[in-house]
Structure formats: structure tokens, C-alpha cells
Amino acid sequence: MSIAGTDIKTEEKYISLFKDNLGHLNVITSEEVANEREAGIRIFEEKGIPNRKVENYKYTNLNPQFERDYACDFEHEVFNQNLSEVFNCNVEDLDAITVYLINGWYYRKNQVSESLPKGVLMGSFAEFSKSHPDIFKAHYNKYAKNEEDSLVALNTAFAQDGFFLYIPKGVVVEKPIQIVNIMKSSEDFMAFPRNLVVLEENAQAKIMVCEHTLSDNKFLVNGVTEAYIDKNAVFDLYSIQNQHNLTTNISSVFIKQKQNSNILTHNLTLHTGVTRNNVYVHMDDEHCESKVYGLFVSDKSQHVDNFSFIDHAKPNCYSEELFKGVLDDTATGAFAGKIMVRPDAQKTNAFQKNDNLLLTDTAKMNTKPMLEIYADDVKCSHGATVGQLDEKSMFYLRSRGIGKDEARILLMYAFAYEVVEKIRVEAVREQIRGLVEQVFRGELNKCNSCALCGQDASGKGYTCM
Amino acid sequence: MLEIKNLHAKIDDKEILRGINLTIKPGEVHAIMGPNGSGKSTLSSVLAGSEVFEVSEGSATFYGKDLLEMPAEDRAREGLFYSFQYPVEIPGVSMVNFMRTAVNEHRKYNNEKPYSASEFLKLMREKKKLVEIDSNLTNRSVNEGFSGGEKKKNEIFQMAMLQPKISILDETDSGLDIDALRIVANGVNKLKSEDNATVVITHYQRLLDYIVPDYVHVLYKGRIVMSAGKELALELEEKGYDWIKKQFED
Ligand SMILES: Nc1ncnc2c1ncn2[C@@H]1O[C@H](COP(=O)(O)OP(=O)(O)OP(=O)(O)O)[C@@H](O)[C@H]1O
Ligand SMILES: [Mg+2]
User: Fold this and answer.
1) CA B127 to CA B96: how far, in whole Å?
2) Structural element, H or E, at residue A15
3) Residue A89 included in any domain
4) Span A67-91, pLDDT tens digits
5) Does residue A60 lie within any of the structural domains?
6) What is the pTM of this model?
7) Distance of CA B71 to the CA centre of its chain
8) Where is the SUF system FeS cluster assembly SufBD core domain (chain A) (predicted)?
9) Which of A58, A335, A414, B205 suits a disulfide with B237, CB 3.0-4.6 Å?
10) Cα(B69)–Cα(B6) distance, rounded to whole angstroms?
11) Which long-range contacts does A130-137 make (Cβ < 8 Å, 24+ apart)?
């Protein structure tokens, strides 16, 4: 049996899953969503699951994750328990508008309408695709790069639900919107959440997405978020991932920016099995500003791969990227940052930095900047470092009576600090500071955010923070 | 309190300390002088527990306990303080967090309850006044962007916070203007008592006008080659080290 033979088999599994369930897939979504499916599955069929020969997936082979068998929920078997009884998010103290997703499905008992300004639409992607087809016609699947990534195309083929957010012109949602997605199942499970965000001119919103796992099954989450950020709008997207290590989380974010808009994305991977984050920012107008950040902390055999693509399509835009990773044990990580400066895009400012801290000799990090610059009047810089804890700092701290473990924690936190401070919503920043410190202290498992916590996980082949 | 016997230390097979003998009693002030590269900082950091150097021979005991067996943090908790010649900048670790952790780890070691936030801040205010250190320094990350003089002042502030039994001040005077020198020296003198001792490493007599030593030692090529009273410092200031170097060329 050849390797190619098994590869084909894996992909065929997904193609037949698609064919067998097409009817179900379309029951709850509108035509706008349904019409994109065929093209999606065709691209997937043609390109297959990315292997290491695919340049953008060089350091992450997802084939083993896709080869496994997972159950799916295309009919949305309603989650009957009362959510608050089984789940408490670590960030619960946050003064936020909180909604829940279960296995990528918008939880139908969410109650939010009163706390939102007039005209704001927030709710189920599926439901809004039917009630507001005009918005979906204008924006759905317009920014996701299906051609660039077969897994995004696969999401388009299977997309059914997720969150939908629409902020009308000039409206500012002051409070952060917290979206908690909980994966919970009685068997190994796969989901394709699809989210759509539209900020009209001069609107503002900040979203915090928290990803959790609540049962000890293998999960494969392949999610896509599209965001359209119109003129002068300001948008923040913080994704906090705290999932057990049987999880494979693929998250792709596509942001389209118009003139003078300002966006920030931040991927905080605090615990996972295998994670791939894609951030695509398309600055399609002048004077856009984008800040793309990430922090991951991993140990044991976790793997985190951050990929970004900043497309400077028009002049006078500014982009800033900072990704940091802390790797312990045999954790592996990758960063690839593509910056495209199109011929038109004079006076571009694009800065990229990736710093990594390896705590052991067995942890590994691959980092790769990819700059393509076709304009001449630009300011671009990039830099990457991979280092260990600084011995001199370590000695300095210890010479003041601070024990080795505590000194390590202080220095790990000091390393992460710069990127945590980039969070520009103060309440969120405070929360994340605390969470990151807990991760470094190995104390995050004291939460109830994960069904595995409190159980004796040792020897069962999974870990929880 | 501190007894160093025949201490040898090396790095990459290069022997830097070649048999140091030194005894320090409570209440004493010792000055260590000597040309550049003679091993003054090496001696200090070996005593403080640096793992960069390998102790190949000899012993050092602190109140009878084997100092060389202890990890750096325990030496500090036992009451040894090393004011670095080149204090380290640690961006991202705030001074407050750093000091609170240090003070409370000391207290834990001595079976004392950790300070509450308000107790700690009170202590901090008190000590800040003592060494006349500006709040805008203690509100920053550890030594980050501090001038040379500010770093030295910060070392003395930390010393005041930790109240050690023995302090080794490695060129605490370098980089200080005359006012700062006076403040730092005053700080050291205010912290002095019958029970604690000070080791001052310096190239200049000036500091010793303020912190008056009981003994002055000359360290040269990894050995203490001469010890005398405070008048030796004046003599060295005047004549330099050549006459000593000549005697101990080997
Ligand atoms: N990390 C190191 N690696 C190699 N050699 C070192 C190291 N640290 C110190 N040395 C060497 O050890 C010797 C003594 O250095 P040390 O810093 O102790 O001198 P010092 O007396 O403090 O000098 P100064 O008056 O300039 O501060 C020097 O020859 C120095 O080059
Ligand atoms: Mg020195």
C-alpha cells in the first residue's frame, strides 16, 4: 500500500461525507451559504489535505489528524444542559457581553439583545444567513481564500453555523463581546464553525473568542472567520485557546480593511494539542492600520503553528506583527509571516517580529519571514529570535533570594509581557495577564473550564493545564 | 561570620581565584582593591552563588554553614547580598513584583508570614526614602533603561529592602556623581550595625572617605597579596599598583 494511496483515502472520506450530508448541510443555511459549497469541496478534492510539500504548511502535517474518524453534527442536536451549570469560563469576571457556542453551533438560549446598541445584529450565523441574505450576499465567502488553503475550502463546503455580528454605521459597542466555544461530545468529534463579522463605516467592536474542550474526546475543529471592516472602523479580535491536548484546532481569520480602518488580532494559545492559526489581512484601501499578534505557551508534545499573510494592496498602510512562543519539553512550534507589498502600495510601513523562548534542548521552533515587496518607497523590517532563558537574569533574580522555579516563572512572564501588553482593551488585558501567569505557574488546571480537570489525567494519554 | 579558606575558582580551565583567604566578623568593613581583572568580581559572584565559575578547591562558610553547597537563593536568604558591578536589566519584570517576591521568599525561608500588599508598600516607601531613590525608577521594570548611577542606587535600595547580614558592594561607586555617591554611602552607613558586615570593592579612595574600612585588602592575580588598615587605600591612590605588581610578579 503506497502512501499516496492512503492519502487519497482520507480525502475521499471527507468528499463522501459531504455528498452524503449535503441535504442536511443546507437545511438551516441560506442559498448564499449553500451556493459556495460545491466550489469548496472541489478545491479540497483537487488540492487535498496539505502535506509538508505545501509551502505554507511546511512545518505542520495535519494528515494524521484528518485520517482519524470523527463524528459530526450536521443536524445540531441541541445541547440540553444548562450551560452555566457545566461551564465557567476563566474570564467570567470580565464585564462583557457573553454568548456561547457549542461545538461551533450558536447556543440558542443566548440572551444578549438588551445589552447591545440599537441596530447591532448578533446571533447565529445560520439564522442570519436566512433572515439577512443581503448581508451574506455582499460578504459571505468574499474574503476567505479558499484557493490558498484547502482546509478553508473544506470549511466552506461544510459551513453551517457559528456567530454572526453586524455593527451598523457609526455604532460603537463599548463592552467586549465574549464568545465562548465549548467542544463537548460523547465520541471523537469534528466541527466546521463559520463566523462572519461586518463592521460598517466608523463602527467599533472588540471580540474575545474563548476556545475550550469539555470532554475527553479527540476534537478536530476547522473554523473560519471572515471580517469586513469598513472605512474608519475599529475592530479587535482576541482568540484565547485553552483546549486539551487531544484537540486539533485550525483557525483561519480573513480580514478585509477599507480606508482608515484599524484592526488588531491576537491569537493566544495557552494550551492545545495541535494548533494552526491563519491570519490573513487584506488592506484594500489607503491608511489602514493592522496589528497582528500572537502568543503561545506549549509543553509536552503540543504543536503550534502561526501563519500570517499581510497584504499591503494600497499605499500608506501600516502593519505590525509580533508573535512570541514559549516552548517546553518536546513542544514544537512554527511561525511563517508573509508580507506582500503590491506595486501600488508606496509608503507602506510593515514590521514583523517573532521571538521564541525554548526552555529545553528538545523543544523546537521553525520561523520564517516571507517578504514580497514590489514597491520601492516602503519601510519594512522583520526579525526572528530563538533563545533560552537568560542566565545572567536568572542569577540576578536568584541572588536576591528568589528560588529557581519562581525566577523561571518571572522570566517567562517577562518574555511574554511585551505581547500581552499589546492587548488594547484594558479589561481583557488584565484577564489575560492573569491567565498567562497561571499557565506559567502550571495552575490553570484549577479552573472548571475543562472536564478533564480535577480528574487524574496521568496515564490516560491526554493533558490538561 | 564569613570564613573563606584557600578558595580556588576557574572558568574553562582558566584559574581565576588562586587561593583566597579572608575572615570577616560582624560589624566590620572590609575594602578590596586591586587592578582590573584581578578577580574581585569573580570572588564576589562565586560567593553569591554564580554557576559560571567552578570552585575547584577551598571552602567558604557563613555562620558555620557551608556556603558553597547552597544554591544562590539560599545564600541570599541566609543574609548574603551582592551588589552587582553590572546590574542586569530585566524588561518585563517590574521592580515592585521583583522586590515583593524577593522579600517574601526571604520571609518564607525564615518561617515568617509573607507581607500583605499594604505592609509591603509601606516597607518599600520607607526604604525608598532611606536611599533617596525616585519612585519613577521603582515603578519601572528591573533596571530597564536605568543610567549607570541609577542602577547602583537601585542595588543599594534592594540591599535596604533585604536587610542582609553581609553585603558585598562591587564598585558601587563607579558611575556615581558626587551627590549620588554621598547618598549611596549614607544609605550603606545607615544600614550598618554591630551585627552586619560590609565588603566594599572599589578603585577609589573617595568612597572610603564615606564608608570607612577597618581593613583594606589588595587582590592581585587571584590572591590577596596585601592586607592593612585604611591607610593602605590612600597609599594605593597615590602610588598605584605597580609597586605591588612588581613584588608579586610570577
Ligand atoms: N565569564 C567569564 N569568562 C571568561 N573569563 C572571565 C569571565 N569572567 C571573568 N573572567 C576573567 O577573570 C578575570 C577576573 O575578572 P574579574 O571580573 O573578577 O576582575 P575584577 O577584579 O573584578 O576587574 P575590574 O576591576 O575590571 O572589575 C579576568 O581576566 C576576566 O577576563
Ligand atoms: Mg569587577
Assistant:
1) 13
2) helix A3-27
3) yes
4) 999 999 998 765 666 666 666 655 5
5) yes
6) 0.88
7) 17
8) 185-415
9) B205
10) 16
11) A130/A28, A130/A29, A130/A30, A132/A166, A133/A30, A133/A31, A133/A32, A135/A166, A135/A196, A135/A198, A136/A30, A136/A32, A136/A33, A136/A196, A137/A32
Same domain, yes or no: A110 and A227: yes
Cell numbers 443566548 correspond to: A110
Q: Which residue range(s) make up the domain with A411?
A: 390-449
One domain for residues A281 and A397: no
Q: Is B118 within 8 Å of B143 (Cβ atoms)?
A: no
**B interface mutation test: which of A394, A396, A433 has the most B CBs within 10 A?**
A396
In the block, cell 610570577 appears at: B250
Residue A413 near residue A430, CB atoms below 8 Å: no
Which atom belonging to ligand 1 lies closest to the Cα atom of B35? 25
d(CA B192, CA B70): 25
| HSE (side-chain half, CA atoms, 13 Å) at A51 | 13
A410 part of contact set with chain B, CB < 8 Å = yes
Q: Which of B26, B49, B44, B66 is nearest to B164 (CA)?
A: B26
Query: Which atom in ligand 1 lies closest to the alpha carbon of residue B52?
Result: 1
Q: What is the ipTM of this complex?
A: 0.97
pLDDT band at A457 (very low <50, low <70, confident <90, very high): very low
Of A391, A392, A403, the CB nearest to B73: A403
Which residues in chain A have their CB less than 8 angstroms from residue B76's CB?
398-401
Average pLDDT of B15-26?
96
Counted domains in chain A: 2
Q: What atom in ligand 1 is closest to the CA of residue B171? A: 27
Residue A297 lies in a domain: no
Q: Convert the pLDDT of each residue in A394-453 to its tens digit.
A: 999 999 999 999 999 999 999 999 999 999 999 889 889 988 988 998 876 533 344 333
A319, A413 contact by CB (below 8 A): no
* Interchain contact, A395 vs B141, CB within 8 Å: no
| Residues A278 and A425 placed together within one structural domain of the fold | no
Nearest residue, CB atoms, B72 vs list A398, A411, A415: A398
Q: Please list every protein residue whose CB sits less than 6 Å from any atom of ligand 1.
A: B 11, 16, 34, 36-42, 52, 85
Which residues from chain B sit within 8 angstroms of residue A434, using beta carbons?
Answer: none
What Å distances lie between residue A150 and A58, A74, A309, B69, B123, CA to CA?
14, 20, 16, 59, 61
Residue A82 covered by a domain: yes
Question: Is the pLDDT score of A172 beyond 50?
Answer: yes
Q: How far is the CA of B127 from the centre of ligand 1 (A)?
A: 32
Q: How confident is the model at residue A108 (pLDDT cuts 50, 70, 90)?
A: confident
In order of start, what are the domains of chain B with their CATH numbers? Answer: 1-28+49-69 (no CATH), 73-165 (3.40.50.300)
Q: How confident is the model at residue B135 (pLDDT cuts 50, 70, 90)?
A: confident
Query: How many CB atoms neighbour CB A383 within 10 A?
Result: 11
The residue of chain A with its CA nearest to that of B94 is A414
Query: Cβ separation of B92 and A395 shorter than 8 Å?
Result: no
